[in-house]
Task: inverse folding
């Protein structure tokens, strides 16, 4: 089977001068390629990554300014947020549906993988690992002062990086509620390498989206000042003593 | 089409397969290293190790029995090389399942009516077939489980919790499947026992000399695979059992990758426990089995409580049934067990020795072919006159993730291989990688399958390199 010409990409390169010119210099310095991914004007003039959910942890204790910004974020109207993620999802589905040949879907993912921010060793922490992937995928999530979700991801697989790149394009900067609203079945039509309605341990779309949503949910709970639900400790099966 | 031999218990010649030869630290008896000789190969391949005439190979002869193999995937002929994960099913097995559900589906050991009596008869016949297949001395030594994992857990939660005490040692290898590690971590956690792990030697084989050195009177159990699902290496189980018994330890053998591919004789190996799964040996999913020596099974408490496993139930207590019923609480996977019986008939009809001989040939061909791919690292021992590999190769290619390889092989070439850690993360850590790709064969694979795979792999590597 010979490869065919790749159709025009839809997800990136949309003309949005504001996205590249109005992002903060600090953020660009941290992640110079990331600005290309952003099409959402909501972030204009905001330095999302420099202020994280940590502000809620300090609420009312040492940083009243942070408290104010967090509350502001909570009360900020969602405006067109829901539309934006939904629109991006539609575009994502449309783009992958238009690629009839499997190889073209793989090529497209590799194309997007190359646009994921460069490898950063600090991202590859055990606590950031996405469970269930046949490749290693790491996802980090933060909530900015406006209550919007910021994601970073990395993988040792180029194809998985492509998945991550698409998901970040879709969800980075979205309201937490938007992130939580996306259903894994919405991504059924963009599967690459797995077929149909696959709820599988190897379905990277599925696993990474669920990881993003779990982290988002945890940050929402944290912001609301609730105690996180106590999960069963993951270190279940440690033997009392192991020797080699 | 291969015919099955309904109800015929095919007795296979006793055959030991201690491939990995190491100087014995304890006295071994009747132990000879296996080598491929004209006599062992003449049955299937007079000209081995050169390729047999394609039209005569076991792969070509049996492929018509497997309908699933005759399809296109993503526009290419399906090349199924994920047999270590699960095997395909011949029409004889599919037919046995269909016949059960169409003709005599009923619960076993319950009703006195015709269907129940027939289902019970066939279910117990399947147990007899498993017993004969691995040469157990009595079919009551065979417990049907959901799979091999459940069989190991059964031993862990019954024999293990009953017999393992604080500071006792459980000896394993770093190459064990997760299902042979985690149950013992749980047992160690509950009992205060110590897990000890045998590492690999320089040939990337679990170090049997080291294993023997680690045996002591503290060792209560040795848990080892027969054939590694990653390394393709074969452990000298008979030798290990002999040494373990010398210190009073029992041995549990994970035979998931050996029973489908070679003659396994539990009496010859003298293993105390041995587990395998149906789905890896051309049978249905949902059923596996535990072999346990009668005296051990008889002394073990129940695993799960429910129907079938009791003798009498009172409100305050119950009396337990004898093995194997004691360990088969609730309605078992009746049709699946019968399907497993049909799979054993099919395999026995072909001849396990013939299957094994053909797979040795395929294993060498696969290893040699893969070795020609640039920048490849194949894990496990290199085949030689005294080291024979199982017909599987786990490998990595520099700078390409194995899952990316597997994805492209599937999407572009219709080649099905496995990628990931193959439920052996400790082994992969030991090898210094997080994942590998694995091509694993069965007797219905052919030289052409391997050739197509290698060609596809080279194309895949070129594809990914072109993106760099």
Result:
């Amino acid at each position: 089977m010979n490869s065919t010409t790749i159709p025009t990409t839809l997800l990136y390169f949309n003309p949005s001068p504001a996205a590249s010119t109005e992002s903060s210099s600090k953020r660009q310095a941290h992640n110079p390629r990331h600005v290309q991914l952003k099409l959402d004007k909501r972030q204009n003039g905001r330095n999302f990554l420099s202020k994280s959910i940590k502000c809620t942890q300090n609420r009312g204790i040492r940083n009243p300014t942070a408290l104010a910004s967090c509350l502001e974020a909570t009360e900020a109207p969602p405006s067109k947020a829901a539309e934006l993620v939904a629109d991006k999802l539609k575009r994502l589905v449309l783009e992958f549906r238009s690629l009839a040949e499997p190889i073209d879907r793989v090529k497209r993912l590799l194309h997007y993988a190359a646009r994921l921010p460069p490898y950063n060793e600090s991202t590859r922490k055990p606590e950031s690992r996405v469970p269930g992937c046949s490749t290693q995928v790491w996802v980090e999530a933060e909530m900015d002062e406006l209550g919007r979700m910021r994601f970073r991801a990395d993988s040792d697989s180029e194809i998985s990086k492509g998945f991550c790149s698409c998901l970040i394009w879709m969800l980075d900067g979205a309201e937490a509620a938007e992130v939580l609203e996306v259903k894994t079945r919405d991504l059924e039509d963009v599967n690459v390498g797995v077929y149909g309605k696959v709820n599988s341990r190897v379905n990277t779309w599925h696993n990474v989206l669920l990881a993003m949503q779990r982290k988002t949910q945890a940050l929402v709970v944290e912001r609301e000042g609730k105690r996180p639900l106590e999960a069963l400790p993951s270190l279940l099966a440690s033997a009392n003593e192991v020797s080699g | 089409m291969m015919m099955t031999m309904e109800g015929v218990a095919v007795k296979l010649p006793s055959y030991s397969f201690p491939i990995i030869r190491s100087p014995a630290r304890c006295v071994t008896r009747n132990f000879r290293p296996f080598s491929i000789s004209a006599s062992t190969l003449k049955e299937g391949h007079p000209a081995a190790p050169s390729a047999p005439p394609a039209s005569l190979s076991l792969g070509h002869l049996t492929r018509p029995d497997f309908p699933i193999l005759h399809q296109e995937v993503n526009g290419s002929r399906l090349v199924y090389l994920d047999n270590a994960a699960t095997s395909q099913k011949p029409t004889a097995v599919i037919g046995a399942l269909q016949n059960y559900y169409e003709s005599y589906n009923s619960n076993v050991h319950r009703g006195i009516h015709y269907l129940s009596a027939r289902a019970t008869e066939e279910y117990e016949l399947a147990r007899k077939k498993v017993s004969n297949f691995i040469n157990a001395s009595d079919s009551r030594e065979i417990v049907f489980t959901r799979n091999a994992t459940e069989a190991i857990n059964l031993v862990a939660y019954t024999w293990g919790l009953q017999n393992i005490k604080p500071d006792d040692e459980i000896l394993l290898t770093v190459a064990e499947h997760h299902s042979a590690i985690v149950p013992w971590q749980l047992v160690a956690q509950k009992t205060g026992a110590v897990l000890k792990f045998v590492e690999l030697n320089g040939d990337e084989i679990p170090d049997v000399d080291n294993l023997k050195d680690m045996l002591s009177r503290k060792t209560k159990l040795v848990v080892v695979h027969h054939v590694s699902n990653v390394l393709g290496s074969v452990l000298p189980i008979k030798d290990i059992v002999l040494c373990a018994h010398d210190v009073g330890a029992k041995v549990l053998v994970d035979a998931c990758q050996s029973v489908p591919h070679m003659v396994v004789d539990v009496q010859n190996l003298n293993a105390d426990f041995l587990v395998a799964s149906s789905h890896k040996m051309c049978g249905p999913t949902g059923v596996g089995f535990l072999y346990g020596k009668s005296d051990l099974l008889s002394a073990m408490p129940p695993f799960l409580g429910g129907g079938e496993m009791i003798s009498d139930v009172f409100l305050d207590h119950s009396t337990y049934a004898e093995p194997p019923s004691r360990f088969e609480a609730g309605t078992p996977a009746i049709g699946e067990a019968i399907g497993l019986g049909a799979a054993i008939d099919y395999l026995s009809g072909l001849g396990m020795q013939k299957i094994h001989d053909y797979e040795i040939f395929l294993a060498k061909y696969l290893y040699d072919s893969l070795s020609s791919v640039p920048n490849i690292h194949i894990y496990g021992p290199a085949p030689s006159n005294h080291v024979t590999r199982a017909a599987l190769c786990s490998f990595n290619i520099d700078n390409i993730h194995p899952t990316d390889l597997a994805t492209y092989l599937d999407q572009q070439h219709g080649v099905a291989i496995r990628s990931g850690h193959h439920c052996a993360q400790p082994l992969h850590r030991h090898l210094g990688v997080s994942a590998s790709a694995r091509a694993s064969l069965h007797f219905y694979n052919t030289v052409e399958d391997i050739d197509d795979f290698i060609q596809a792999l080279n194309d895949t590597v070129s594809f990914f390199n072109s993106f760099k």
Notes: The two ends of chain B are 48 Å apart (CA to CA). Confidence is low (pLDDT under 50) at residues 1-25, 27-49 of chain B. Chain B touches chain A at residues 74-76, 182, 184-186, 188-189, 192-197, 199, 401, 403-404, 407-408, 410-412, 419-420, 434-435, 464, 467 (CB under 8 Å).
